[in-house]
Design brief:
mainly beta, single chain, elongated, about 60% strand, 4-stranded antiparallel sheet
C-alpha cells in the first residue's frame, strides 16, 4: 500500500515558493517494510489537500501545483497531471469501479461556460481515467454554497454533501444561515434527488 508524504524543501510543511516542493511517494508492505520510494519534483504552491485510489491501485492527488489533479501509478510513476479552471477549491474526490474520477467542492467565476451566480457555488466534475473531463455540474445562488464530502456507489451513483446559505430578514437586518444538503447524481451527471436539512435558526 502507499504512504504519501508531502515534503517542502528545505524545512517547511507548506510553501508558496516556486521550485521548493516535492512529493515523496513511498510503498510499504503490510509488515511495514518499504518496497520503494519516489520523489516527484513540483513547481509552485503545494498543499497535498486530498487523495484517493482507483481499482488498479493508481493514486489521485490534489493540491500539487501546477497541477490541480496528479495521477500516480502503483509503482510511484507520474501518469498525468491536469490543470482545471481558476478559483476551484477541491474538498473531496473519489473513483468509481470504472476508474473514473469525481471531484467536488466550491467555485467562483465560471466552469465550462457555466457562470457563477455571485457567491461561491457547488461544483461536481467527472474525469476519465485518461485525464479529460467527461462532464461538469454547478449549483449556486448569490450567496455561498459548497460541497464538502462525497461517496460513490460502484459505477451507479455519486452523492455529495455540504452546505447552502439561507438569508432571513430580522428586524430589517439580513442575516445568513447555513443549512446542510445531500444530493445524489447518476454517473451521467443527472440529478436524481436532493434534500436540505435546516438548522434551528433557518
Amino acid at each position: 500500500f502507499f504512504v504519501i508524504l508531502l515534503i517542502l524543501f528545505p524545512q517547511s510543511a507548506y510553501s508558496n515558493e516556486k521550485g521548493n516542493s516535492a512529493l515523496i511517494v513511498a510503498n510499504y508492505s503490510l509488515n511495514g517494510e518499504k518496497n520503494f520510494s519516489k520523489t516527484i519534483l513540483l513547481n509552485g504552491e503545494s498543499k497535498g489537500s486530498g487523495l484517493t485510489f482507483d481499482e488498479e491501485g493508481n493514486l489521485y492527488l490534489t493540491g500539487s501545483s501546477p497541477f490541480d489533479i496528479l495521477k500516480i501509478d502503483k509503482n510511484g510513476e507520474k501518469i498525468w497531471g491536469i490543470e482545471l479552471e481558476k478559483d476551484l477549491e477541491i474538498f473531496a474526490l473519489g473513483t468509481d469501479t470504472s476508474n473514473n474520477l469525481y471531484i467536488t467542492g466550491s467555485m467562483k467565476a465560471s466552469l465550462d461556460g457555466k457562470i457563477s451566480k455571485g457567491g461561491r457555488d457547488i461544483f461536481l466534475i467527472k474525469i476519465s481515467e485518461r485525464g479529460p473531463k467527461i462532464w461538469s455540474r454547478i449549483y449556486g445562488s448569490i450567496l455561498d454554497e459548497s460541497a464538502t464530502s462525497m461517496s460513490i456507489k460502484s459505477d451507479k451513483a455519486v452523492a455529495i454533501v455540504g452546505y447552502v446559505t439561507q438569508q432571513k430578514d430580522i428586524i430589517d437586518i439580513q442575516q445568513n444561515y447555513k443549512d446542510a444538503f445531500v444530493a445524489k447524481y447518476d454517473t451521467e451527471g443527472e440529478l436524481i434527488w436532493t434534500h436540505t436539512f435546516k438548522g434551528k435558526k433557518s
